[in-house]
Automatic annotation (TrEMBL):
Name recorded for this polypeptide: Phosphoglycolate phosphatase
Source organism phylogeny: Archaea, Methanobacteriati, Methanobacteriota, Stenosarchaea group, Methanomicrobia
Enzyme class label: hydrolase
Cofactor(s) essential for the protein: Mg(2+)
Residues that hold Mg(2+) according to the record: 10, 12, 176, 180
Residues the record marks as active site: 10
Highest taxon in the source lineage: Archaea
Length: 229
């Protein structure tokens, strides 16, 4: 039987609702948990750290879809891919689309723009010139990122930095989006909240009946019922 020693959770759509409000159920669960909760998100580090502080997690975070890691709220972050690399993809796409940058000054790796064009088409354009890059649509924004980076890879590397003497097999991952799949598939146990698309649900160990933060709380309760936590 897998013994869960840490939880890795996406933020938007998993801990928060469609208006980006954190469910009270999340706060209650995190407060009583005996295992650390790692936030893994596509958001910028400053947002992730603020969320960790307000939600009450351990402070270890994965930001920008795996490219920016932080072992605590007050430590120097580890930036795995520099933003100048992703800027090449942005400059290329400017010839094809009218794009609006989001949070550019706060980003350390990715370039993020508003959802005003087809990300799949843009990904084909970028990959044809820069195969080391990719373009993804998280449902909240379009991210131009390093193809080698993912939330799953970010959590794996963060565990090494934390020196908690555990691998991904001891992590329970929670998510709602295709961008969470690397984390869900790499973890020992995975939970998809009810608002997840079918391709995410079919790859999860457990699919919550409730959406958003209530689904997170339900997933934690399921882990406890199964004796995994």
């Amino acid at each position: 039987m897998v013994h869960i020693r840490a939880i890795a959770a996406d933020i938007d759509g998993t801990l928060t609702d469609e208006r980006r409000r954190v469910s009270p159920a999340v706060l209650e669960v995190v407060e009583r948990l005996d295992v650390p909760v790692i936030l893994a998100t596509g958001n910028a580090l400053c947002f992730t750290r603020a969320a960790a502080l307000l939600i009450g997690t351990c402070g270890a975070t994965v930001s920008e879809n795996g490219a920016v890691l932080s072992t605590a709220l007050d430590t120097e972050p580890h930036v795995l891919v520099e933003k100048r690399v992703c800027l090449r993809g942005y400059e290329l796409l400017r010839d094809h689309y009218d794009m609006r940058l989001l949070d550019f000054e706060y980003r350390k790796s990715e370039v993020v723009v508003a959802r005003t064009f087809d990300a799949k088409e843009a990904n084909e354009i970028v990959r044809s010139h820069y195969p080391e890059l990719e373009v993804i649509d998280t449902g909240f924004a379009i991210h131009i990122k390093a193809a080698s980076m993912s939330k799953g890879e970010g959590v794996r590397r963060l565990l090494e930095l934390l020196d908690w003497d555990m691998g991904m097999e001891h992590v329970a991952a929670f998510g709602d989006s295709v961008s969470d799949l690397s984390m869900l598939e790499g973890a020992g146990v995975s939970v998809a909240v009810a608002n997840s698309p079918p391709e995410v649900k079919k790859r999860a160990t457990y699919v919550a009946r409730s959406p958003y933060g209530e689904g997170f709380a339900e997933g934690v309760a399921w882990l406890e019922e199964q004796g995994l936590l």
